[in-house]
From TrEMBL, chains A, B:
One Pfam family this sequence matches: MerR_1
InterPro entries: DNA-bd_dom_put_sf, MerR-type_HTH_dom, MerR_fam
SUPFAM superfamilies xref list: Putative DNA-binding domain
Residues in HTH merR-type domain copies: 11-79
Entry keywords, A to Z: DNA-binding, Repressor, Transcription, Transcription regulation
GO molecular function: DNA binding; DNA-binding transcription factor activity
CDD domains: HTH_GlnR-like (cd01105)
Protein's organism: Virgibacillus indicus
Coiled coil (UniProt feature): none
Keyword Transcription: yes
Origin: domain of life: Bacteria
Name of this chain's protein: MerR family transcriptional regulator
PROSITE patterns registered for this protein in UniProt: HTH_MERR_1, HTH_MERR_2
Length: 129, 129
DNA sequence: AAATTGATGTAAGGTTTCCTTACATATAAT
DNA sequence: ATTATATGTAAGGAAACCTTACATCAATTT
């Protein structure tokens, strides 16, 4: 079993994810509805989230705090742009530029919630190689 | 938040732990009853297990496979012996000897279950420093 | 300004998972 | 043979989760 397998293992119930991310169940389900995440299900249809899912949710939260809407967040998180970028120089630049543009359009922001876990932090559960 | 905090965070419902360890709920609760683990609880009294708990359960499973009984496992896992050993040369030796004795009393063992996760493996979720 | 859209709250009714307690069982120890 | 150990199983109840639907409130659009 490699890291990627571990990161995508269905582990957490939604209650745990709520605490981990400080998002409401409504929000989490809403983001799933809009295909930002797609947690596995138990045989009884209950959601089980992976580390990847939680990391994504933390990133979503981060971008929400900065004022982005679903569309923007989707653009930044969606495979389309980011994954394509990894394999394509031109895309990579486009992606970078996109991030810049979005970043510049942000309100100066800065006020953080009282989140106990910051975006990307859960990743440290994993071994970096 | 440091590694130890992360390792002891209450994260997993018992169903998840069952899959992770391939132990029955009955077994897991039994080991708690006998103070081998002590998972947190939700406000509604449902168990939430940490990485440490799961790692311990995997170790318990390992020792079970080797024919140890609760008493032996308890000796090997319990703070008393191991933690004390870290700080005391004499104890350390005693502990080592104890391990030897127990090891020698094992049936030659060897047959493993079809466990998808081996003892210690979950630890790799964490950063080793 | 009024209507629409986007994002989240909340409530109802139902299902699944988990809880404890208790008793059954099989193997091992005495 | 009896007792102890470790686990299975079942019952009844509580907690957590599910979907659906409607409410709300801010931001857009008309």
């Amino acid at each position: 079993m490699n890291d990627q397998d571990r990161r995508s293992m269905p582990l957490f119930a939604i209650g745990t994810v709520m605490k981990l991310t400080e998002l409401s169940a409504r929000q989490i389900r809403y983001y799933e509805e809009h295909q930002l995440i797609s947690p596995e299900r138990t045989t009884g249809n209950q959601r089980l989230f992976s580390f990847n899912d939680v990391d994504k949710l933390l990133e979503i939260k981060n971008l929400l705090d900065k004022g982005l809407n679903m569309a923007g967040i989707k653009l930044l998180l969606t495979d389309k742009v980011n994954k394509a970028a990894e394999k394509n120089e031109t895309m990579k630049i486009t992606n970078k530029e996109l991030r810049e543009v979005l970043r510049n359009e942000l309100s100066e922001a800065g006020r953080f919630g009282k989140s106990s876990l910051r975006q990307g932090e859960l990743s440290r559960f994993f071994v970096k190689r």
